[in-house]
Amino acid sequence: MADYISDLEKIKLSSEKLKKVYYNQKGKEEQLIKQKAGLEETLQRTAEHIETLEKVRILLQKVSEFAREQSRQQIEALVTNCLQFIFDSNIEFRIEINEVRGKPDAEFFVLSNISGDIIKTKPQEARGGGIIDIISLAIRIAMLECSNLDIKGPIILDEPAKHVSDEYITHVAEFLKQISVMFGRQVIMVTHNKHLSEIADKCYRVDMVNGISRVIFDS
User: Fold this and answer.
1) How many whole angstroms separate alpha carbon 81 and alpha carbon 77?
2) What is the mean pLDDT of each run of 10 residues along the chain (219 residues)?
3) Residue 138 backbone dihedrals phi, psi, to 5 degrees
4) C-alpha distance from residue 91 to each of 111, 113, 116, 137, 194 (Å)
5) Spatial separation of the C-alpha atoms in residues 69 and 62, rounded to whole Å
6) Chain-centre distance for alpha carbon 71
7) What is the CA radius of gyration of the chain?
8) CB 121 within 8 A of CB 109
9) Burial environment of residue 21 by CB neighbours within 10 A (0 to 12, 13 to 18, 19 or more)
10) Which domains does the chain possess?
11) Is 206 helix (H, G, I), strand (E, B) or coil?
């Protein structure tokens, strides 16, 4: 009988220990279930944030593409008008934008209509250096006027149209006058070209006399 009571006590003690282990593990399980629910909720919110951010990324990309396309068209139009005003109506300026390593890359081309055939060339290969001078000049003006930045002040040019032949230089002079009026900007220019200097409202000549530069007001 004593052995029976001893065994029963052992069973009770073992049962109590198992109960403690059970309730301890059950408490841990409930805590883990709560943590799981919290993590699932966080995961859901994160997934929603990622979806929202992806939509924003796509929207910004579309806006960027639209703005880039608008700027491309404006620059193309201004440069083309400039080339046609100075040279002839059979020449156009084109910008081709492609993705290179995930970033937009722009290439410039000149399109010449020769007897109905469209010849597409790089600016440096089109009719000599005069074309590059005019494209460079027109792009600088286009970037200045098409930019979202509110940039005030004059347009300062150093030997614009340096390689343009005398046949077209008077057209360049007239173009600069029209640009000044159109955009309401003063044009300050350094040039050795007589045709360009003659269009100025005010002209200063720098002469070298005995090794000393002298500034002379011409007009």
Assistant:
1) 6
2) 66 80 84 88 87 83 82 89 87 87 84 85 76 89 75 86 87 90 90 86 87 82
3) -65, -40
4) 6, 6, 12, 16, 27
5) 10
6) 9
7) 38
8) yes
9) exposed
10) 152-219 (3.40.50.300)
11) strand
